[in-house]
Amino acid sequence: MNDMISLGFSATLVRHKRLLIRNHDGKSVTLPASAALCLAALVEAQGEVLSPEQLMDIGWRQVGFAATENSVRVMISKLRRALVSLDLDQQIHLLAVTRSGYRLIVHTSDPEDLPPCPAPLDAHQPEVQPFRWQRALSMTLGGIVAGIATGLVAQHLWLLTPKKIDFVTWHGGAVSVESRVWVPKHQQTHHELIEATLLTYTRYVLGPDRPAARELYITLGIASSHHHQGLIACHQPLQEANNGCESYYFRVN
């Protein structure tokens, strides 16, 4: 696995240090673990869309943590703030694709190929005094900006509020596994999708030298689509240390 990931000519991501570095001067920011993992995956996807379910698996579940789509939104917000803090938001764009997920667009033009900056204004150019209506407009815009900022702060605080996932044990179904099966409490009636996920797990993961894990956590997406199935397989309960969890994401055509 390459530890240094290039984001065009503008930046470099150092995986093990979770550093996003601006290439021309070395300025850097440290990313949260989930953000670094997801950014690496988005770069390697080369502009393809990654769904929230895929990002949850990549950034959280594969290292043993539960996540929700709200976790993904907060992570995306942190990545965008990191790009803005490094003045990279014009070269690197993190786009939301409606009902699909997120994609990363990196402009790969060499800085030497970019058009030259416009010449500065003449230092002796006389200063133009603004009209009074311009001052009034500035005051009005200032009030609007203050209102927007207040709204964004409130939204940011709401996004950072963790959403607890309550797993409950699930029994029944035609698929037989020697494991304890857990499902999100509010989705425990989705028996058909739960059975389909367990069937995919037993068919494509298990084998003579790979028995089923003791604890299986079904991670159903909001759309509850049979084409997108997720599962966390753990040797110990998810909340315990050294649980030996492995995360699986199945896309079934």
Automatic annotation (TrEMBL):
It comes from the Bacteria. GO terms for biological process: phosphorelay signal transduction system; regulation of DNA-templated transcription. SMART domains: Trans_reg_C. Keywords: DNA-binding. SUPFAM superfamilies: C-terminal effector domain of the bipartite response regulators. GO terms for molecular function: DNA binding. Residues 2-106 bind DNA. Residues 2-106 form the OmpR/PhoB-type domain. InterPro entries: OmpR/PhoB-type_DNA-bd, Sig_transdc_resp-reg_C-effctor, WH-like_DNA-bd_sf. This is OmpR/PhoB-type domain-containing protein. It comes from Pantoea rodasii.
